[in-house]
Amino acid sequence: LWAMIAFLFFSVAMNSLNLIENSFVHSTPWLSFIAGHLTHASLVSAGVIISLLFFDRKVNPKINWPVIGFAVLFAVTAILLRPYFGISKIKGTPSWTMFSAAICTVLFYFLYWLMEVKKQTKWSEFFMPAAANPLLIYILPGVIYYFCKLINVHIIPGYFRVGVPGILWSLVFSVIMLFVMKILNRYKIQLHL
Q1: Tens-of-pLDDT digits for all 193 residues of the chain?
Q2: How many CA atoms, within 13 angstroms, populate the side-chain half-sphere of residue 27?
Q3: Which of the two ends of the chain, N or C, has the fewest CB atoms closer than 10 A to its terminal CB?
């Protein structure tokens, strides 16, 4: 646990320094090579920390204070870094990483409470097709997008690509993908590494 916490701190610090002009990170060949990828390492190590706090020790079924503390720490770190780096997934800013970690931690905590503590699992059956074939549902939207681009077909009007309509279309498209996965799973069409 402590090694992962130290690695998370290192990843966020080096990712931050990588985004600052003339930082020593740029003049250190091995560090400049990996610094841009430390965004992903930060997210993964945050997830490992939260997993260890839930499953590698005895968890209080009512309140898991260490997890709540880390969710707050992630959010505060994101708020403090935002003025310097902004929030950008494309640039992999540390503030985006920490906001993502905070949101995922809160969602995971809620799902843990709902499914493990309250034993409310019936609702999750809707998502089982995706859980049974995660790699295919991850890749399939990209395949559809580039296929439509190749044959120059627009499956949605431009109006549904931005703002609230874009968010609504994303939710509808996600539900469509779940139904597609249900059909593909029925015919044993799967993708494995």
Answers
A1: 999 999 999 999 999 998 888 888 888 888 777 877 899 999 999 999 999 998 887 776 678 899 999 999 999 999 999 999 999 998 899 999 999 999 999 999 999 999 988 999 999 988 888 888 899 999 999 999 899 889 988 888 788 888 899 999 999 999 999 999 999 999 998 887 7
A2: 4
A3: C
Separation between Cα atoms, residue 81 and residue 157, nearest integer Å: 37
Give the number of other Cβ atoms within 10 Å of residue 175's Cβ: 11
* Contact present, 102 and 115 (Cβ < 8 Å): no
Gyration radius of the chain over CA positions: 20
In a domain, 192, yes or no: no
Full DSSP string of 61-101: SS--HHHHHHHHHHHHHHHHHHHHH---TTTT-HHHHHHHH
Same domain, residue pair 96 and 137? no
- 38 lies in which domain range? 2-120
pTM of the model: 0.79
